Amino acid sequence: MEKFDLITFGEIMLRLSPPGYERISRCEAFDKRAGGSELNVAAGVALLGLRTSVISKLPQNELGTFIKNRIRFEGVSDDYLIYDTEEGARLGIYYYESGAAPRKPSIIYDRYNSSFTRINLEEIPADIYTSARLFHTSGITTALCENSRETAVELIKRFKKNGAMISFDVNYRANLWSEADAKRTVEDILNYVDILFISEETSRRMMQREGGLRDIMKDFTRDYPVKLVCTTQRTVKSPKKHDFGSVIYSAEKDMFYTEEPYMDIDVIDRIGSGDAYVSGVLYGMLKTGNPAKALQYGNATSSVKNTIPGDLPASDLNEIESIIRNHNSKGNVSELNR
Question: Which of 10, 137, 153, 275 is the most buried (most CB within 10 A)?
Answer without folding.
Answer: 275
